[in-house]
Every structure is written in C-alpha cells, then in structure tokens.
Amino acid sequence: MPATQTAILLIDCPDRKGLVAAIVNFLVERYDINILNADQHQDAQLGLFFMRVEFATEDPLCTQQSFREAFEPLALQFQMNWRIEFTETKQNVAIFVSQYLHCLADLLQRHQAGEFPCNLSLIVSNHEVARPLAEFYGIPFHYLPIAPETRSQTESQQLALLAEHNIDLVVLARYMQILSPTFVQAYPRRIINVHHSFLPAFVGARPYHAAFARGVKLIGATSHYVTEHLDEGPIIEQDVTRVSQNDQLPSLIQKGRDLERIVLSRAVQWHLEHRILSYSNKTVIFA
Amino acid sequence: MPATQTAILLIDCPDRKGLVAAIVNFLVERYDINILNADQHQDAQLGLFFMRVEFATEDPLCTQQSFREAFEPLALQFQMNWRIEFTETKQNVAIFVSQYLHCLADLLQRHQAGEFPCNLSLIVSNHEVARPLAEFYGIPFHYLPIAPETRSQTESQQLALLAEHNIDLVVLARYMQILSPTFVQAYPRRIINVHHSFLPAFVGARPYHAAFARGVKLIGATSHYVTEHLDEGPIIEQDVTRVSQNDQLPSLIQKGRDLERIVLSRAVQWHLEHRILSYSNKTVIFA
Amino acid sequence: MPATQTAILLIDCPDRKGLVAAIVNFLVERYDINILNADQHQDAQLGLFFMRVEFATEDPLCTQQSFREAFEPLALQFQMNWRIEFTETKQNVAIFVSQYLHCLADLLQRHQAGEFPCNLSLIVSNHEVARPLAEFYGIPFHYLPIAPETRSQTESQQLALLAEHNIDLVVLARYMQILSPTFVQAYPRRIINVHHSFLPAFVGARPYHAAFARGVKLIGATSHYVTEHLDEGPIIEQDVTRVSQNDQLPSLIQKGRDLERIVLSRAVQWHLEHRILSYSNKTVIFA
Amino acid sequence: MPATQTAILLIDCPDRKGLVAAIVNFLVERYDINILNADQHQDAQLGLFFMRVEFATEDPLCTQQSFREAFEPLALQFQMNWRIEFTETKQNVAIFVSQYLHCLADLLQRHQAGEFPCNLSLIVSNHEVARPLAEFYGIPFHYLPIAPETRSQTESQQLALLAEHNIDLVVLARYMQILSPTFVQAYPRRIINVHHSFLPAFVGARPYHAAFARGVKLIGATSHYVTEHLDEGPIIEQDVTRVSQNDQLPSLIQKGRDLERIVLSRAVQWHLEHRILSYSNKTVIFA
Q1: What is the C-alpha separation between D287 and D275, in angstroms, rounded?
Q2: What residue of C is the nearest CA neighbor of B287?
Q3: What is the DSSP letter of C149?
Q4: Cβ-nearest to A25 among B21, B39, B42
Q5: Helix, strand or coil, per DSSP, at residue C144
Q6: ipTM score here?
Q7: Of C41, C217, C235, the CB nearest to A238
Q8: Where are the alpha helices (DSSP H) in D215-275?
C-alpha cells in the first residue's frame, strides 16, 4: 500500500477567470490528489486572489522537485507567487529571547505538548537567564551578549548559527534588541515578533507605560512579521484585555503577558502550518 | 452588454475524491462563471463535505430553473443536498415580537441602514406595543392576541399570513410564545430565535434569573434555528459579556439586551446571505 | 413618614490619612445617612484619592444648598474637588448628530426603555435626516445647517439653545463637525463623543479606512470627553471586535457601528449616574 | 523608625446603618491606620454587606492576636463573619495535578515571575509525568498513585501531607480525581478547581466533547471553589474564546487550554490576595 503524504499549496496572483478550475484540475489530473481543505480569498479592491489548498496524495512521484517543475507553467501563465510545502518536512525554528521568560516558557511548553509541528533547533539570548529553561526542555542554548561596539559582529554570529542549523523561522519572544536591515532581509516574512501593544497604538519602547499614561480601557498585544520598519510589519494576530483604574502599571504589565503569550503562539502555529499569506503589508490568515 | 447576475450554490454531501473538481468544472464549462468566493468545510469525523460558491455569470440562460435541471445529475451522482440562490431575488421576512422591543428596534434600524438584503414583509405580535415602531418604519403590523383556548386558531392565522406573503424567514425577536410542532415543521431551518443565555446553559424560562442565581461571571445570548425541541436547535451565533457582583438582576438584563441584539442580527444577516449550512444539529457558517 | 432621598458625593483630593473616616463621620453625624454604595480609588503614583459615596437620607434638611455649606469646611481642609448630586434631579441632555443615525436610534430606544435617568431635551443636527426619528420619539429637533462662513454664528445658536434648556450633558452621536474651543470650554467634561477607532490608534478622519489599510485584526471604538485637542480627551470606554480578511471596508464599518453604539451608550449611562471622575486626562469609572 | 505592616480585613454581615462608620472609626482610633484600599458591596436582595479594607499601620501592637481580640466586640455587635490577614504572612500552597501539565507549567512560571505571593510547598500527583517540571522549579514532588481499592488510604496520605506542611490552599490544576466529602470539608473555600467548560454548561466528564457535539460557537473554562457537589461550587472566574467549524475536537481542546491557564491563575492570585468573599454559593471579587 502506497504511503500517503500531505502537502499545502499556497498561491497569490491577480484574480482571473478560470483560475480555480485550472488549479484544481491540475492537482486532480496530475497527482490524483484528494483535497483536504481549500480556502481562498479575494481582495476585490486590488484585484488579487489568494488560495491555500491542503491535499493528500499517494502518488510517489509527487515530490517537492517534481511538483515545482510540473506546476511552474501554470504559475507563469497566471503570474502566481506560489509555494508548495510537504507536511512531512519539519521546519527548523530558532527562538530569540532577552530577560523576560514568559513567552519562551510558554512556547517550550506548547512545543512539548505537541502544538507546534517543528524542530526547536536553538535558543539565542543576549542574557544567561534563559539557559536553565532551555536546558530543561533540551534545546541548545547560545549566549551571545550584545555590546554597542560589537553589535554587528554578534549579529554575524547569530546569522551564522541560523545558517548552520538551516533555520526556517526566527521567533522573537520578547527579544529586546533591534535587528539590522541585513538580518531582516535574510529572513523575509520569516521573523515573527510580539509587540506589547495593540498596534499601531503605542509603537516604540515602553508601550505599557504609554498605555497607562493615556488611560486606555483595554490593553493589547500584537504579533507581526518583522520588516525594516520597526513595529510596522504585517500584523498576524492581536488580542486585548480589559483594564481599569485598579490596574496600576505592574498589574497592567502582568495582564499584558497573557496576551503576549497568546498572540505570539498563535502566530507561530499559523506560520508553521502554512496558514499565512502576506501581501501589501497585510496578512491573510487561513485559520 | 449582457447583465451580470450573482448566485450562491450551497452543497453538503459525503466527502469524495474529485468532488471539488467536478463542481468547479461544471460551473465553468456550463455557464462560464466567475467565482467570487468559494468556501468549503470538511467534517472529518462524519466524512461530510460542505461548500458555498458565490459566482457571477453573464449567461442569460443561467436561471434558477435551468440551473436546477443542469446540476441535478451531478448532485445525484454525489448524493448532494444542495440549493442555488440568486441574489437578485430578495427574500421575504416576518418578525414575531412580544413586549420587549429592543431587538425589533435594532432589526428595523439595521434594515433601514441597508444591512439586510430582504423585504421586511410584516411584523406579527401578540401585543399592541410594537405597533408604533412598525408603523414608523412602514412595516405592516398584525396584532394577533394569544389566549390558551384560541392558541391553535391564532397559529393558523399566523401561518396563513406567512403563506400569503410568501415568507422565506421568520425571525423571533424576543417572541415569548412557544410555536407548535406544526408551525416549526412548516419552516424548517427558516425560523431564527434569540435565547437570552449562553446555551446550553440556562435553557427554559427566565435564564437571566438563573444565571444570576448561579453566580456566573459572564452572561450570554444565543441565536439558533428553531426545532421541535425547545432551545435545542442548531446554534448560529453566541456572544458573552462580563458581569460582576455589581450587576444585580436589572443591570444583568440590560447588558444581556446588547448581546441579544448582536447575536440575532448576525444570524439574520448570515441567513439572508446564504452563509449558513445546518447539519446534525450544528451549523457551518461561511462568514 | 419622611421622604427618603438619595444623593451621590464625588470627591478627588490628595490622599491623606484620616480622609475616609472624616468623610464617613461627617455624613453619618450630620445627616444620619445610610451608605448605599461607597467606592474609592487611589492613584499611588500621583498620591491622589477618589471617592464616590451613594447614600440615602430621610433628613429634610439635607438639600443641595445646605449640604454644600456644611461640607465646605471639610472640603477645604482636605483640598477636595467635590460635588454632590441628588438623584431626584434629572439631568437635561442634548444629542448632536449628523447623517449616520445608528447611535441616535440606539440612544433613543434605550432612553425609552428606561436605561438613561435623564430628560432628552433636544436633538441638534446639521442635516434633516434625523428629524423623523426625533419626532417619532417625541424629542424636539433643531436643524441648524453649517456652512464655512456661518460656522461661528451657528455655534452661537447652538450654545443659546443649550443655555435656554439648561443642558447638563451634550452627546455627540456621530456628529461630524469639530466644536470650537469656546464651545468645548463652556461644557468641560460635559461633552461626550464617540470616535470610531481604538484610540489612540487612528486619530483623525476616516479611521476605518486607516484600520483597513493597516491590516489590523481587531477594530475598536472609543467614547471620551471632548477637550480642545481633537480625539485626545479622557477615554471613558472602549471596545473591540475581531475582523479578518473577509471583512472588506463596508463590513468593517458595519461591525464598527455595533461597537460605537455600545461604548457611547455606556459612557452616557455612567455619566448620568455620576460614575465618572476625570483627572489628569484619564477617567476613574465607579461601575 | 517603626516598621510598616499591611493587612487585609474581610467582612460579611447583615447590612446595617452605621456599619461603615463603625468599622472605619475602629481602625483609625485603635491602630492609627492608613487605608490603602477599601471596597464594599451590598447584596440588596439578601440585605448583606461585604467589605475588604487593605490598610497599613506602624503600630507594633497591631498583631493578628491583638487585632482579633480588639475587633471581636464590634464583630459580635454587627453579626460579622470576618477575618484579618497580614500580608507578611505568606500562605502555603499545594498543587494537585494528573497528566496534563499545561496548567501546572503555567502556575510554576508565574510563581517564578513573582505573580503569586505564596510558598509553593508541594506538588501531589497520581502520575509521575509532572516530576521533572516540579524538580526543575525546585518544588517537592509527591507521587501518590490512586487505585480504586486504595483510594481512601491515598487520600489519608494526601491529607497528612497537607497537614504536615500547613497548607492554606489546594489548587487542582487539571487533577482528574474526585475528592471525597471528607477531603473537601477539611479545606472549605480553600480548594480551587478548573473545569474545562463554561459552567453550568457541560458539567461532568469530557466537556469539550460535549461542547463539540452541541455545536457551540464559544468554548469556556471556569475556576471555582470545590464543594461536595461536583462542578457546582462558587464560580470565581470564567472566560471564553470563539470557535468555528474549523475547530475539530483537537483544536478545540488546544484553545481551551489557554482559557484554563488564565481562569485558574486569576483565581489563585485573587485568593492569595484575599480578594474573594464567598457566600450563598457565589463569590464577590474585590479585584
């Protein structure tokens, strides 16, 4: 009995008549696939089409390589941005963290509980405080301190580590350093950050302090892809919780941690499950 | 230039290989349609497939009648439950109400603001209190008082009114009478009720009193299709809001009214836009 | 049997030892009151104390005038900002509205349902579209069109109307004109506006468009007191709802209307029940 | 300079005129205290009064023992249930857990981050799986397996452990065994459980399965004090999250875990901060 493999096809392109039929027919005729899930989205304003198809096939010839070659003519015809991801290929993930451990502890526990289909390859930090937690969960820990004068040198070390481990996704779990444009460009739409405010409110440093000063009645957190423009990348997920005058700054920060954990973990999971398409500084979430 | 019409095809059937391709190819080859939106859902446990396709066509031959005939063979082959709805056909809606007017006032204002693509054909009530509001918005109002001994007679009058106006959907906007099985069976999955609790908690009468007595920290409201089993029909939408010890019964009831308005109006809109599929006492919402 | 009257005492002042005892003892010894509710709040950072006491008394000598004189020495001693409000005195409210009627319709229905303890004295608009609704609910309607060259003249007419009707509170229910500093200063902390965003995100015009462009995953609405700085007054209430890629601009605007209705009506109710203290561009809500 | 200590006075009693003044005057005159926070609540229906006063004093004579004696006459006069808690006295907490570790991991991380003012004295489990986590955080772990025939014997061992460590609070962090009435009565209002549904919906076993079968649109979790009646104790906190047809059972369970963590941790924190008063199978939360 042939092995079944599942894969995810992600497409964005100009919206054109016949597009869905062409894609579906290709899949069925070429690889005798079974569609497990198909989601599509149109941006009517921009005339764009987005699709995510999760399918199963028993065809041993349906490999990453062969699929790429076979699908390319159709992709060219419809001017597609596209990719194919086979779910048996586990992605490699690196987590960057500084001194606050709540997001890291949460990610590690979720990974252990099986929520994330990935290898946690390494944890990088500019402090030592996360080392015991990393070691408890058996994830290699790399302490790379950052000083102003050695910043670019440290970043080179970080990039070398990522390259060495074939990292697919970098998760900034309250990593309090700003990445250089060089770093960001090396991992386009593959670096996820959590910002502790409801963006675009309170960009920049100390957003809880700013929220407290403004007297908002809800505080938020935002996970987003990192771009060269700080706190301006495509938003993946946001959530909020209610605060009142009883919440002085410490309690506001504590409530915020719950939000940070949730929006970051959702973003990581959706990314790993290939549920996010990003365009025009927005995201489409096929959740 | 030919007129464009849009239609919605709704399907549920056993999940089978080739299903999506067969449906898409039928639409494209037969009527040269343009898919505006396509959503599908699988219930893996039950092996069921659900689909909603919204499409546009300029083919003047694509009528309700011709489509039905043309699609039927495919539907038979895949054992589909299905229907086709043309969006130019406005549905006729009747609202039933008793003495609380907040849901009615909300529905009328939303209809006037263009949120509901339907004709509001009539308002039926067992009290006179809603008449001025109905008249203000120009909707025919029918006062049909209910006494225990004349209940079945009144229900016949109600059903006659609904038949006379070709009513497609009955909305119970805090209508405090129980409909007979005969009535319910005449409008399967076409009667929407709002229950003032987070079902299945607090079924039956006086749910706010029960919620208050139990000391819950959130109160809810639920919109659902009416079946012969009171408060047990397929749930369409639910929402909750936070309460505390500061909320005595009256404030709890007032907060609940906001929820009732919202879950009922969402259910009505989704039904009118043919976004709801119901099976196995659940709903699939293509929102 | 003497009549019982209830009153609300609102205080903010520097936090000092003995404050609560001094206030409570004054009330009990002077007017033999019964405390119905007492809430207090400290801002530890600023060293401020806030209190709301709702009390009942049968003492016929406890009048607005006599209370003011009797309490003043204590108030001076503790440097209090304070006021006393007797609940039998109904406040007079004016609603300003432009062309969107959803907030107005909602406020009128709530007032009719008894949610607001106030007189709705008048509705002012720069358009005629709200007139039928005002007349249906029996509220005097004043059409005062606004043209650039007559703006200050119209504002004088508005202020004259407010003065003539002894207006205590002005509610801007999607009123799309900016009030002059003169107007705002005439009603400090007595003008409530609803802004259709989660402030401070998306200040200024067309916030839904801005939210859509930024690709946020939640949209919000904010009710706040109006100050001379547009969209920067003390926030009273905020709420949000989830949006996705399926929400194009019109659906995002529609979802937002539900939020606007809710945050505005809560703010109005809290203000009328004397539950809001404002300081340092924030609000304390004794809800 | 004398040391400052802070304490919390919790009272519930029949509502009577003069109550607040009597309490406040006692505190001020006897111990020259400074009120840090005072919250009160009335249940108008039942004629009950609830109060929480957090105060600071430099009086070295204000000890648990002396306060108890000094306050008792007033307490008798007003028929109070009351207690005084000095914040320098850290409570001892035991966590019971079975095989799901997400709540335990969360509680341990929060404790480490300083969110809980308590000693985590021990972790008790009927499985070995939690041992590494307990040891990582340095909390003594006791493996007490449970078999039907040795159940009462094991429970005696558990109670002996709790007694030996002077445990003040037992937290059931997804502990899947039912406690006997004897156990429950030994720790009245001092055992907190998390139930993975929005109570009173889906009492009993497998609530996520029941919620899935009913087709609800929101799932919930509830933290509550344990009483002899399963899932019927006073509710402390509840929260919900949205689900859709895309959430099959595993994803529903995963989303639920986020709720469980949050409602349980809030309950534990509020209990430790003496913010909960329980009466008539409800709770008053002074948050």
Answers
A1: 6
A2: C246
A3: G
A4: B21
A5: coil
A6: 0.94
A7: C217
A8: 249-272
Q: How many CA atoms lie within 13 A of C256 on its CB side?
A: 27
Flag if A106 and D101 touch (Cβ within 8 Å). Answer: no
For residue A129 the two structure tokens come to: 């405080």
Residues paired with residue A123 on neighbouring β-strands, in sequence order: A95, A141
CB contact (8 A) between residue A109 and residue D105? yes
Chain A residues with CB under 8 Å of a chain B CB are 17-21, 24-25, 27-28, 32, 34-40, 42, 242
Residue in chain C closest to A284 (alpha carbons) equals C245
Residues of chain B contacting D283 with CB distance shorter than 8 Å: 215, 245
At A52, the amino acid letter reads: R
For chain C, the first-to-last Cα distance in angstroms comes to: 32
Instruction: Please report, in tens digits, the pLDDT of each residue of chain B (287 residues total).
Output: 568 899 999 999 999 988 999 999 999 888 888 888 889 999 888 999 999 999 999 988 889 899 999 999 999 999 999 999 999 999 999 999 999 999 999 999 999 999 999 999 999 999 999 999 999 999 999 999 999 898 999 999 999 999 999 999 999 999 999 999 999 999 999 999 999 999 999 998 999 999 999 999 999 999 999 999 989 999 999 999 999 999 999 999 999 999 999 999 999 999 999 999 999 899 999 98
Contacts of A287 in chain D (CB under 8 A): 246
Torsion B190-B191-B193-B199 (CA) sign? negative
Q: Which CATH number fits domain D91-285: 2.40.50.140, 3.40.50.170, 3.40.47.10, 3.40.50.300?
A: 3.40.50.170
A204 C-beta neighbours (distance < 10 Å), count: 10
Would you call C102 exposed, middle or buried from its count of C-beta atoms within 10 A (0-12, 13-18, 19+)?
buried
Catalytic residue among C15, C231, C247, C258: C231
* The two three-digit tokens of residue C280, written as one number: 């340092």
Q: What is the 3-state secondary structure (H, E, C) of chain A?
A: CCCCEEEEEEEEEECCCCHHHHHHHHHHHHHCCEEEEEEEEEECCCCEEEEEEEEEECCCCCCHHHHHHHHHHHHHHCCCEEEEEECCCCEEEEEEECCCCHHHHHHHHHHHCCCCCEEEEEEEECCCCCHHHHHHCCCCEEECCCCHHHHHHHHHHHHHHHHHCCCCEEEECCCCCCCCHHHHHHCCCCEEEEECCCCCCCCCCCHHHHHHHHCCCEEEEEEEECCCCCCCCCEEEEEEEECCCCCCHHHHHHHHHHHHHHHHHHHHHHHHCCCEEEECCEEEECC
Please tell me the distance in Å from A206's CA to the nearest CA on chain D: 19
Cα separation, C171 vs C98, in Å, equals 12
The runs of H, that is alpha helices, within B11-144 are 19-31, 64-77, 102-112, 131-136
Structure tokens at D247: 């959430």
Residue ranges, comma separated, of all CATH 3.40.50.170 domains in chain B are 91-285
The single residue of A15, A39, A43, A231 carrying the catalytic annotation is A231
Domain D5-86: CATH class, spelled out: alpha beta
Shortest alpha-carbon distance between residue D238 and chain B (Å): 6
Cα separation of C187 and D41, whole Å?
A: 33
Q: CB–CB of C273/C262 below 8 Å?
A: no
Which of the residues A20, A31, A244 would you substitute to probe the B interface, choosing the one with the greatest number of B C-beta atoms within 10 Å?
Answer: A20
Q: Report cis status (omega within 30 of 0) of the bond before A148.
A: no
| Cα separation, D281 vs B213, whole angstroms | 9
Whether residues D132 and A136 touch (CB distance < 8 A) is answered with: yes
Asked if the Cβ–Cβ distance from D246 to B44 is below 8 Å, we say no
Q: How far apart are CA B149 and CA A260, in angstroms?
A: 61
Name chain A contacts of B39, Cβ cutoff 8 Å. 39-40
* B132:C136 CB<8 A: yes
- Rounded to whole angstroms, the Cα distance separating B249 from A217 reads 25
Residue from B227, B233, B234, B237 nearest B265 by CA: B237
State pTM to two decimals: 0.96
